[in-house]
Amino acid sequence: MAISPRVGGGSTSQSAARILIILDRLGQQPSQADLIATPGVVKVVRALSRLAKLDFWLRNPDYLADEVLTDIGSGHISPADGLPHVDRMLAGPAPLLHLYPMRRYKYGAWELPDNAIAVLKSYGFVTTRRAREIDTEASSKARRDYFLQEAGAAAIATMRDEIEQIKWYDEQAEAIGLLDVRETGSAAKVRQYQQPEYKATPVGRPVSSILDRVRPRFEKVAATHGYATTSAPSPALDGSEA
């Protein structure tokens, strides 16, 4: 089976842009302790695990669409809020054009963002810090937090004005923000492992697509709520695993 060249998240600049969007749209407000330790921060995502899980949904429209449908069914998301997002994610070539598969490892979909983070740090856009800055062997395994600096917030605001494609990822982040998931990576991990295709993907392989079953599920939910869909199947892109 051919591996899509999109596996790995695309170019370093694409990965960096997604990280800025995740921090800006889905980050928490920094605590007073954060502001003292890292001046100039405006948002924080606590732990690489959460950053990776959010990035998975950002770049896998089929999985995010299915999660939104699940929360519509549970009543956590209203159909008026959720169905337009699902429609957008599944319309025409969108779910393949915006698909950047992530490999599954022992603890789920995972990808080190080191190159993108290095670039963002070099511009003063992002800062990282261990949750415990203690000079012990255990400190090397402490949770790493990711902080958006004021310069990074200004940079993503400029990108929104200049790069049309950013709108798609802002809307993806908005849809993720609707989900019934707490501010931890473990909560997102539990939801992602509830997807049988995700769980069954062999370690080291790109997580399998669920587009073929999400489209009919959306059509059924949309019909139930009287929502007129615009989504329609489209041919797979060259080199994709869809």
Structure description:
- The structure is a single chain.
- This protein has 242 residues and is mainly α.
- The chain has one domain.
- The strands form two sheets. The chain has a three-stranded antiparallel sheet. A two-stranded antiparallel sheet has the order 2-3.
- Helix 1 crosses helix 7 and helix 4 runs antiparallel to helix 5.
- It starts with 11 loop residues before the first helix and ends in an 18-residue tail after the last helix.
- The C terminus is likely disordered.
Primary descriptors:
single chain; 242 residues; mainly alpha; 3-stranded antiparallel β-sheet; globular
Helix-strand blueprint:
Elements: H1 12-26, H2 32-37, E1 41-46, H3 48-59, H4 61-74, H5 79-90, H6 94-97, E2 104-105, E3 108-109, H7 114-122, E4 126-130, E5 144-149, H8 150-162, H9 166-178, H10 185-193, H11 196-200, H12 211-224
Antiparallel strand pairs: 1-5, 2-3, 4-5
Helix pairs in contact: 1-3, 1-7, 1-9, 3-9, 3-10, 4-5, 4-12, 5-9, 5-12
Across the major sheet, the strand order is 1-5-4
Structural shape: globular
Secondary-structure-derived class: mainly alpha
Number of domains: 1
The helix-strand sequence is HHEHHHHEEHEEHHHHH
Rg:
18 Å
* Unreliable segments of 5+ consecutive residues: 234-242
Quick take:
With 242 residues, this protein is mostly helical.
